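From: lab user (bench 3)
To: helpdesk
Subject: output format question, protein + magnesium ion

Hello, I'm new to running complex predictions and I'm not sure whether the block I got back is the full result or only part of it. Here's what I submitted:
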Amino acid sequence: MATADDVKARLAQVSAPDGRPVTEAGVLSEILVSDGKVYMSITVDAGEAQAWEPVRAAVERTVRGTPGVTSALVALTAERKAGAAPAGGAQPVRVSGQGGGHSHAGHAHAGHSHAAPGQPPADPQKETPGLPGVGAIIAVASGKGGVGKSTLAANLALGLAASGLRIGLLDADIYGPSVPRLMGLKGRPEVNGRMITPMQAFGLKVMSIGFLVEEETPMIWRGPMVMSAISQMLKEVNWAPLDILVVDMPPGTGDAQLTMAQQVPLAGAVIVSTPQDLALIDARRGIAMFQKVNVPVLGVVENMSYFMCPHCGTRSDVFGHGGARHEAQRLGVPFLGEVPLQMSIRETSDAGLPVVATRPDSPEAGIYRGIAAAVRDSLAGRRGTARAAPRIVMEG
Ligand SMILES: Nc1ncnc2c1ncn2[C@@H]1O[C@H](COP(=O)(O)OP(=O)(O)O)[C@@H](O)[C@H]1O
Ligand SMILES: [Mg+2]
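Helpdesk reply: Thanks, we reran it on our side. This is the complete output you should expect:
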């Protein structure tokens, strides 16, 4: 079996754009080798990303060619130059995370991951190139785990799809990927050369980090490795054409989440919270995190908002419902809706039969479709506002 040192020794032959060996350019992450699979990333200044793409490809080829290596994943991640970002909020806002929104959906340029020369520069907050043929990427996030983030992400995606949009669902929750279970998916996606074909479930294109790693795999992916995986799931999956890609983010507001929010070209974020105070504090952190990286907060959803008794239909406000609505108002972000704590939601989720797809006429499905409509409005409102405001970088 190959070791990280074997790989590194081979990489000394690959040259950086300035001619130095790439191993001496100070850009390589730690090299992780697990069972013949190699994961690593190259982090460069955003402005130099284009020059580095051929180097990334050469590094990946070289790693794959190392005896004992069965597969390799090398991601190029762009970093903002220290001090390059002006302070405050008076920066140009890109209308969507994807260079112009829906009008571009369907115009896939497979293989071109960078903006064409001559286009205006991308939003300085988001140097990450958009995904060709994907209208907008939105994140579903929560300050902590277990609040129903994945259940919401899946049913939100289905609710958006029910209105006729082409929707993808990307499970980026490296700590507990649950989309395969939620969507009743088993097995692995097909890989053609470098590109992965997303799996299909209930009309959605679905990709999960859970398809790439075994459930028992120890959590060795940290820091840049997480970025590599996310980057691959964005760039090396045949998502296009899509109107919206819904990303189930890892819970929490630590460095990993912050970096991810910066790495993924997000058009907006939906924050899921339960009504309890503690969760709301976490939700506040989540909102602050996205605001810090200038990702618009599309709104807050209160999950397990109230209890609907499956026998008598009586509603009980177990957790003192309404906290998230007030908090959203206080923070000036939209409130997108409330989902009851309901047995049928848990049962359908755990059975891989998401309620919006399998019981479209139920009140619960209606609630999720309402939230999907609110998310669309919020996304459209952001675009509308952004269009009217000065100093906008319009693309395309
Ligand atoms: N509104 C709800 N009513 C009942 N059960 C729910 C609801 N939302 C989520 N659940 C259940 O709670 C558990 C955690 O939900 P999940 O979506 O996996 O949370 P997270 O992704 O935040 O960890 C799952 O068993 C799920 O079925
Ligand atoms: Mg989850």
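A quick orientation on your result: Residues 134-381 form a domain with the Rossmann fold fold (CATH 3.40.50.300). Let us know if anything else is unclear.
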